[in-house]
Write a structure and sequence with these properties.
The protein has 806 residues and is α+β, with helices and mostly antiparallel strands. The chain is built from 15 helices and 40 strands. Helix 3 runs parallel beside helix 4 and helix 12 packs antiparallel against helix 13.
Length: 806
Amino acid sequence: MIDLLDGARWRLARTDAGSVLDPADLREDLDWVDAVVPGTVATALGHSLAVDPDEHDWWFVTHVSTGDHRRVRVSFGGIATRARIWIDGVHRRTVTSMFVPETLDLTDREDTVTIAIHIESLAAQLKSRRPRGRWRSSLIAAQGLRHERTTMLGRAPVYGPLPVPVGPWRPVTMTPIPDVHRVDLTTAVSGTDGVVTLRADLGAPGVARIMIDDRAFELGTVERVDCAVTLPDVELWWPHTHGRPRTYRVTLEVDGTVHPMGVVGFRTVELDRTAGGAVLTVNGETVFCRGGTWTPLEPVRLWSPEPELRAALEQLRPAGLNMVRVVGTLVYEQAEFWSLCAELGIMVWQDVMFGTVDPPTDDTYTAAVTRELDAFADTVSANPALMVVSGGSETQQQPTMLGLAAEDQRMVMLDSVVPSFLADRLPGVAYVTSSPSSVSGELHTHVGDGIAHYFGVGGYLRPLSDIRTAGVRFAAECLAFAVPPERAQVEKFFGSAAVAGHHPDWKAAVPRDRGSSWDFEDVRDHYVRTIFGVDPHLIRRDDAELYLDYGRAAIVEAFTEAFGHWRRASSGCAGALVLTLRDTVPGAGWGIVDTAGVPKAPFYALARASAPVALLLSDNGLDGYSVELVNDGPARSGTVRVVLHASRGSHEFERTVSAPANGSIALTVDSIVGTFTDVNHAYRFGSRTYSAVTVLFLDDSGVEAARTTALVGAQSRQNTVGLTANVVEKDSGTWELIVRSDWPAQYVCVDIDGFEVSDSWFHLAPNEPRTLTLVGRGGGAPRGHVRALNSVERASVAPKVVSGNS
């Protein structure tokens, strides 16, 4: 459909709060600048932004020609936060919520339309006296924000040094008023059939039919569509780790004209919260949910082109990640995000935009939230990716931690308003009152009860063994660390690793809780000290790059231990989402991917543990190593091979196994070897016999489907471990990298700028080559190095003179 505002020039001006109330009073001698819509004040001003946008009023103005169109619809996808919309000098709409779109129909227009958006100072609004909440939020300083429907980005320092979003952050469009308007679209599964329910207004009687892919359902002559059609033997939508994410395109054809209604999918969802757990079942199959919390790719503009969204979401698939959570302190995502998640088979946990505050109960506030939820439902109805809706982030945990009794924590918004709405508009979606939330409904802080935010390993400095004893059932947030970007990215962002530590540019990106005396870099240093027995501060003084490598390795150790335990059937855990998937600013943020989209060290550890077919190797002390083969797909058989590496060579042992569909089998290394081995040197009878153990799963055709390696005992840093790295081109832009070492190599890192590597930050057993895949993000051949944490010497990577397919 034609958009008359496509390419329109928007201008932006700042005025003092309350000084200009009518666009007719805007002077041309104001400091007008060009603005991008969708976008924010900070998008337009960039580094020249020297004020807090909340402290001032702002005007976005444009003039657009309507041509021959005399009946047009102007849609404002979202304006942050309080605003007045003027059209041709007439005040047409007042905006009080960032999350509610506004639509205006204009008829009998002149050739040119002037649109002016007046953003009012939120700081001025917060100065007015309004009822206090029952508790104070520890996340934000301005407690009056409890009355505002806006994001906490830029207002909560934990998300980094970001400007507050002010302006039309969602698209503003002007289109001819459509003849056909979709009212609602839902799907359901009935036995083996799929049911599509469509409601639409046609404006005038017409001969209509519904098309679902290539299947037609004739409706005859109608003026309004309100019907349900059944597709026999429908193909279900699955998360990509468990099957095919099948979707169907729905169109409404009226008098021969096709009107797209949306893309839908068919699946069933249940969230079993009995017995203190939280188990997600999709199409009758339990799914271990793994992934992370989602942050906007463009946290200043809050709008991303579809190719950028696609690249970020496609990055999750080969890593075996199948769920993202949109957190209640941020923003609802754009429509393209949802269509991509449906296409790619990525499940979504969506928080309502509440976080740590006591939501008001007055009618005005409730009406605003209801309109907000209506807009969200219009975007996601019938989208199969939506699994769970939560009543916000830490909404119930905050009053629990402040010591309020259970009855004093009750929130009508979470107990009544939101669930009633979902039952009406989004049937078939699971609902939880908050993240985290207990099954009992009282103590929302106990990590072994219901849905947890688990930071025992992390901010609370618990030992890695706490992962096994905490009894986490579902972690909707976990494992927050200040994760350093990879070496090449540190140089791009900061010039060198010398800034690591207390340089202001570096520290600005390190997350910290408001009012705390520590930050998450202190957390990372703690685990470097306890895992590797070294003083990170002394290392940083002499070798900043090695200091960051120890930090990266410590986080990989924590991720490996956590997901290696949680994904086991015996753990009782049904899912874990890391905080966060991506950084909001360059630096050592929570993200396992940096702001440029380059994976950081723990990304690879999470990917190894999250693969649809994975081997989980665990040191169980005197019981030796246990091995669990987990399989998300159909039943498969093959061979589990154990390789024990000793000083005089290696020894191989095998066992034929059958892995059930969407299940696992648990073994021990000793049971595969067939005798007591003390591989992990737990009994300490004499000197250590083995230096490493590798476990592989080979399918019936002998193809390697999964692999994991553990090094036995502490690894001392030495001059060399005999690392070599050879690279050969396979196809245009794709290369193979063969890495080998003479001695055990601890946390091998592949550092090749401009290429995506299939694995990194793994252990390498002696004389056991690993073949990795390199895919170029640009032109040229791979050049860089491979290094190990326990080796001073590193191996250079450069292409061979000859290339080919051998």
